[in-house]
Design brief:
Helix content: 25-40%
Radius of gyration: 31 Å
Strand content: 15-25%
CATH topology of the largest domain: Phosphatidylinositol Transfer Protein Sec14p
Number of domains: 4
Distance between the termini: 29 Å
CATH class of the largest domain: Alpha Beta
Largest sheet: 8 strands, antiparallel
Number of helices: 17
Shape: globular
CATH superfamily of the largest domain: CRAL-TRIO lipid binding domain
Length: 728
């Protein structure tokens, strides 16, 4: 598997020319990187006006590997070829490196770039990408990969420190300014230390061209990120806002990561950048905030494939149930305001928002009977959404990354009544939803005054709680929380609630039994639950091989605008739009019997009769669009004629091998798997009159695709020169 690395933008608050002078001091050897043994200039050439210089070096690295492995490989040093291209006019240095040793077994490629900061030409930016592909290595492929990743990560970490060291050395030598290149000037020779290996075929030291090393196993693409590093005090308000919220086109800067996201290893930074880039390419205009992406990465130990899967599922869930608008649209029923014994209460010693829940005083049975499971779930989701908002606020207030909150649960009063089966069922479902969509938001859970019945409850719920989350639980029985190592270690004494023998008044309902007069019948609760959780403008459909899903839209007035917004939850489809003057027959809902698949009613609808002929009975009005799994697609079509328009999502058949008529192995295997013949799409459509269409007749603004709480860029807008437009 190819390992990839993408760095954030690292910023030196020094001019490009001075950084280049510091960079040259790293050659021919560098005592700060012991494994960089030596290097030798193989070729050097400068153009006539001196604006461009290309240097090729052969570098030797003493890889820290087991002696036995070195003996088996038959080498003492690993050699790399480094090509540097310095453009003094454009003020850029491009570095390309690849391994010479074992090049037929291991492929290592690295590119680096020094350039001028786009907002401040007195600063210098540095970016770096690398890849490692181990084809074979005497049966030690896994060992070599681990060694490579470890050493590469360590060299990345030292990279900026080394440049800063030589910048200080220049300053100590009285060099604080290097003039810029001008057409009339020749390049100034920089002092180069004499080689320690006068006859050795190797000598200098590279920026970040380490040995057989590279990062985490994950596939993704280039970097992405935020603004280049600046002190927030000197930034204009609009730029500061952009840095804090993030936009799809910006670059993540290393100082921004440290200030707002925390201390990450180089490989963790790379995972964040590459997952963010992938989201930009497939979820245009709806990119979650960096801290939210980071939570999902942490929840899967920075395995990018696993994190991407659960993040996409969560984004689809948020969109389907409009969770982004929950804080604006949800108002707690009066019974919750009176009897739900929980609320936000200042913050803990680490600056995390503090949520207090007096579970022992809560009538869980009464709340479930009076409100239903769905209302309780929605209330808990609103608490989590509020927690995300408070984390952002506290990050700004305390000047350090705060991405989770602390929960204090008081169990005084907990008894067998709380183990009422429907109540436990509701609790387990809430835990399941929160675990899936708010990972790594709980920093610490303080459980106080746990009674004897608590182990029974814990046995029921603990299997549904992630292992990493369980490690954050601290349980105190009786009054143990009042002694050393208790509550005062985590919460300032001044804000300990009064009901815990503290001095701070806590504005949380006292709770008590919910009057039975407020209980609702099962039928009422079921109807209310349906009303609450089907309040979504999106519909789901399944697409099978040989059975597309089709949606009929009748247009009365020409020049109406059909708009759509859909997400590919599973599989690849081809999206088509057809027009017909005749109304299709009543829809067929039977999926193809050949696969033995039973589709839910209304989940797969087919409208186009098999006897219809394309070009006679109906016509295609848009070019087919292939939509890949994970993509989000928005678009519009301006109708030219009245009649019946059919939106079709059709199973995408992979193209057969062009070189032979024989089926490919992959195709044969796919036919054996029923799951490979099913796709899932979540869609929303709307028909607008031309006078109601936002903007002009050639623009689209999709206002139903945003993630308002998780993304600064909540909508996407695209321009089209034709009457129809599809934007990804």
């Amino acid at each position: 598997m190819v390992q990839k690395y993408q760095s954030p933008v690292r910023v030196y608050k020094h001019p490009f020319e001075l950084v280049m002078a510091a960079y040259e001091r790293r050659f021919p050897t560098c005592h700060l990187i012991p494994m960089f043994v030596a290097s030798d200039v193989v070729e050097e050439e400068t153009n006539e006006d001196g604006s461009n210089t290309r240097v090729e070096r052969r570098c030797a690295l003493d890889v820290d590997a087991p002696r036995l492995l070195k003996r088996i490989a038959g080498v003492e040093y690993v050699y790399f070829i480094q090509n540097n291209t310095l453009n003094r006019k454009e003020r850029t240095l491009h570095i390309e490196s690849h391994n010479e040793t074992f090049s037929n077994r291991v492929i290592i490629h690295e590119t680096c770039c020094y350039s001028v900061h786009p907002e401040n030409d007195a600063w210098t930016c540095f970016e770096q990408t690398a890849s490692l592909d181990i084809k074979s290595f005497f049966g030690f492929e896994s060992t070599v990969e681990k060694i490579a990743m470890k050493q590469y990560a360590s060299s990345i970490k030292k990279g900026k420190e080394i440049i800063e060291f030589y910048l200080k050395e220049l300053q100590d030598d009285g060099i604080s300014h290097v003039p810029r290149w001008t057409p009339s000037s020749l390049p100034l020779p920089l002092p180069r230390p004499t080689s320690l290996f006068s006859s050795s075929p190797i000598l200098p030291k590279l920026t970040v061209t380490p040995p057989v090393s590279i990062p985490l196993p994950i596939n993704a693409k280039d970097s992405t990120a935020q603004e280049a590093n600046r002190d927030s005090s000197t930034l204009p308000a609009d730029i500061l806002t952009e840095i804090l919220t993030g936009t799809p086109e910006d670059k993540l800067d290393a100082d921004y990561i440290k200030r707002y996201l925390g201390d990450l290893t180089p490989l963790q930074e790379s995972c964040l950048i590459r997952l963010r880039k992938w989201l930009q390419e497939t979820h245009k205009g709806k990119i979650p905030k960096d801290e939210h992406i980071l939570r999902f990465l942490r929840a899967r130990d920075f395995n990018m494939d696993k994190a991407r899967e659960i993040l996409c599922q969560s984004l689809t869930w948020r969109k389907q149930h409009q969770v982004d608008y929950l804080l604006e649209t949800w108002s707690s029923p009066q019974v919750l305001q009176d009897y739900y014994t929980g609320g936000w209460h200042h913050h803990d010693r680490d600056g995390r928002p503090l949520y207090v829940l007096r579970l022992g005083q809560m009538d869980t049975k009464g709340l479930v009977r009076a409100l239903g499971e769905e209302s309780l779930l929605r209330h808990v989701l609103s608490i989590n959404e509020e927690g995300l908002r408070r984390c952002e606020e506290n990050t700004k207030v305390f000047g350090r990354p705060i991405s989770c909150w602390t929960c204090l649960v008081d169990l005084e009063g907990l008894n067998m009544r709380h183990l009422w089966r429907p109540g436990v069922k509701a609790l387990l479902r809430i835990i399941e939803v929160v675990e899936a969509n708010y990972p790594e938001t709980l920093g610490r859970l303080l459980i106080l005054r746990a009674p004897r019945v608590f182990p029974v409850l814990w046995t029921l719920v603990s299997p549904f709680i992630d292992e990493n989350t369980r490690k954050k639980f601290l349980i105190f029985a009786g009054n143990d929380y009042q002694g050393p190592g208790g509550l005062v270690d985590y919460i300032d004494k001044e804000i300990i609630p009064d009901f815990l023998a503290g001095e701070c008044m806590c504005e949380i309902p006292e709770g008590g039994l919910v009057p039975k007069s407020m209980y609702r019948t099962t039928e009422e609760l079921e109807n209310e639950d349906v009303r609450l959780w089907t309040e979504t403008i999106y519909h789901s459909a399944s697409i099978f091989k040989g059975a597309p899903h089709e949606l009929l839209i009748e247009i009365i007035d020409a020049s109406s605008v059909i708009t759509w917004d859909f997400d590919m939850c599973k599989g690849d489809v081809v999206f088509n739009i057809y027009h017909s003057k005749r109304a299709p027959q009543p829809p067929r809902k039977d999926p193809p019997a050949a696969h033995g698949i039973t589709s839910p009613v209304g989940n797969n609808v087919q409208l186009i009769d098999k006897s219809w002929t394309l070009g006679q009975d109906y016509s295609m009005v848009e070019s087919p669009l292939t939509c890949k799994e994970g993509e989000s697609v928005q678009g519009s079509h301006i109708t030219r004629w009245p009649g019946f328009y059919i939106l079709q999502w059709k199973f995408h058949n992979m193209p057969a091998c062009l070189a032979t008529n024989l089926p490919r192995v992959e195709d044969v295997l796919a036919t054996l798997q029923v799951s490979s013949h099913k796709c899932k799409v979540m869609y929303y459509t709307e028909v607008l009159g031309s006078e109601d269409f936002r903007g002009s007749m050639t623009s689209l603004e999709s206002s139903h695709s945003g993630f308002s709480q998780l993304s600064a860029a909540t909508t996407s807008s695209s321009q089209s020169q034709s009457s129809s437009m599809i934007s990804r």
